[in-house]
Amino acid sequence: MQIKMLNYEPMNEVHLNEVKLLEKLLKELDENKDVTNTLEEFIKDVKEHFAFEEGLMKKYDFFAYFPHKMEHDKIINELYNLRGKENEYLKKYFKEHFIPWLDNHILTIDTVTAGFFNMVGAK
Ligand SMILES: [Fe+2]
Ligand SMILES: [Fe+2]
Questions:
Q1: Measured in angstroms, how far is the CA atom of residue 27 from the centroid of ligand 2?
Q2: How far is the CA of 52 from the centre of ligand 2 (A)?
Q3: What is the pTM of this model?
Q4: Which stretches does DSSP call E strand in the chain?
Q5: Nearest-ligand number for the alpha carbon of 72
Q6: CA 114 to centroid of ligand 2, rounded, Å
């Protein structure tokens, strides 16, 4: 899976790690394995990914903090609701919804946010 590289390297690192974990999850789903633990691992990783961006947005008073956080919160709630769902359901959710969402999120608000972090020299 390919994702867009942004103007702020720490965000790219977080995104690339997440994609690796997502690919592991999708592989296990394709092999119809029990993904309970991998799904929890993935949810934890997404939470950390979002907390990382939100922390910096707050620290540097980013103007679009709230719309960006709202997009994060919506998807995190969806991920919580996946617990205990069958593999077919999970596969469909990730392929038809989560991946297009992530692509779009990175192409839009994450791109703007990364540009801002780069501009202020966020650390
Ligand atoms: Fe992100
Ligand atoms: Fe984001």
A1: 24
A2: 9
A3: 0.96
A4: none
A5: 2
A6: 9
